[in-house]
Amino acid sequence: MNAYKIALGLALLCLIAAVFLVLNGNIEQAGPFFIAFFLALAVGFRGYNHLKGYSYTVMIFAAVTTALYYPSYFVEVDGFRFAVLITPLIQLIMFGMGTSMSVKDFVGVAKMPKGVIIGILCQFTIMPFLGFTLASLSNFPPEIAAGIILIGCSPSGLASNVMNYLAKANLALSITITAITTLLAPLFTPLLMKLLAGAFIEINMLDMMWDIVKMVIIPIGAGLLFNKLLSGKAKWLDNAMPLVSMFGIAFIIVIITAAGRDSLLEIGGLLIMIVLVHNLTGYTLGYWAAKLFKMDERDCRTIAIEVGMQNGGLASGIAKEMGKIATVGLAPAVFGPLMNITGSILASHWHRKPPVGEYDDEPEKDEVELAKQ
Fold first, then answer.
1. Torsion angle, CA of 344/262/78/245, rounded to 10 degrees?
2. What's the rounded Cα separation, in Å, for the pair 272 and 256?
3. DSSP one-letter code for 83
C-alpha cells in the first residue's frame, strides 16, 4: 500500500509543477509533468478497490496527453504512417470478441425477446438521432460534426458488458444486445449514416458496409470458429486478448489524437462537452425508454448502459477507412475515455443501490455470464 501512496504523492507533486509552469506561460515545458501526473495517478489508483477501475482510463489520458504534446511520434516514422494499423487492430479486437463468444450468447434472443428487441431499437434510434441533433447544433466543420453522428450510429461495445456486471444489472441481456447490435452494424450503421450524416459529408453506403464486414463480421466469425474448434485449449489466448484489446483501443485513440491535434486544440473543450451530453443523455433516454415499455429495474439499467456506451473503436476504424481519421475520427476518440469514466461512476452508483427484491445470488449468475466473455 505504501508504494501506491508514494505514487499518489508523486502525482500531486507533478500536477503542482505542471500547473505552476502553465500559470507562468511555460505550457510546452509542462507536458512531461502532466504525463507523469497521469501515469503516477494510474499506478496509485491500483492500490484502492474503489479506484482500481479508473486506472486504465487514467492511462488513456496519459497517452492522449503524450500524443497532444508530441504528435509527430504517433503520426509517421520513417515514412510509415501509424494510421494503417487502426484497421488491423480493430480486426484483432473483434477476433478477440469472437473467441469469447459462442452460439449460446445468441440464445438470449429466444429467452428474453422483449428485452433484446427493445435494446436493439433503443440502440439504433436514441444515439443516432441524438448525435444528429447535437451535430446540427454544434456549428462544427462538417466532417467533425459527422463524427458525432458516427459514434451515435455505432453498436454497443464490450465495455458495456463490464459496466453492466459492475452495476449488478442483467449481464446476459447486455451480452446478447452487444452481440446482436454488433452483427447488425454492417446494415444499420451505413444506413443511418447515409440518412443522418449525408447532409454533412458524402457517405458511400456500400463501401461502408464492406468496411464494417471486414472489421467486424469476418474477424468475429473467425473468433467463433476458433472458439468452437479450440475451446479450452488456448487459455493463453483467453488471458491475452483483454490486454491486447485494451492496448489496441489505447493506441487507436493516440493515433487519432495525434492526427487531429490541431482541430482538438481549437475545439476540444466544446467537443468534450457535446460528447459528454451525448453520452449522459444516452444513459437517461435508454433508461426511461425501457421504463416506458414496463421493463423491470434491472433490465432498465442494462439498456441504459448499452445505449449510452458505444463501440468507439469500430467508429474510429470506419473513420480511418473513410480517409478522415483526423476529423470524423475525433468524436469517437473523445467518446471512448469519457464513457468509461461516466460508465464506471454510474455502475458504482447502481452497485450500491441494488433493485428492490434482488436476491444475493443473482450477481453470481452474472459472474458466470461474464466468465464467458
1. 10
2. 15
3. G
Among 327, 321, 324, 287, smallest CA distance to 304 is for: 287
What's at 206, amino acid-wise? L
Question: Helices (H), strands (E): how many in the chain?
Answer: 19, 2
Q: Could you read off the pLDDT of 85-108 as tens digits, one per residue?
A: 888 988 888 888 777 776 666 666
- Alpha-carbon Rg for the chain, nearest whole angstrom, is 20
Instruction: Give which of 104, 98, 83 is closest to 254, Cα–Cα.
Output: 83
Strands 80-81 vs 76-77: parallel, antiparallel or unpaired: antiparallel
CB 216 within 8 A of CB 158: no
Rounded Cα–Cα distance for residues 57 and 108 (Å): 31
The pTM (predicted TM-score) of the whole model is: 0.83
Q: How do residues 129-160 score in pLDDT, each as one tens digit?
A: 999 999 999 989 999 999 999 999 999 887 88
If you search the block for the grid coordinates 441533433, which residue do you land on? 133
Counting every residue written for the chain, the total comes to 373
Q: Annotate 124-184 with three-state secondary structure.
A: CCHHHHHHHHHHHHHCCCHHHHHHHHHHHHCCCCHHHHHHHHHCCCCHHHHHHHHHHHHHH
- Spatial separation of the C-alpha atoms in residues 203 and 270, rounded to whole Å: 25
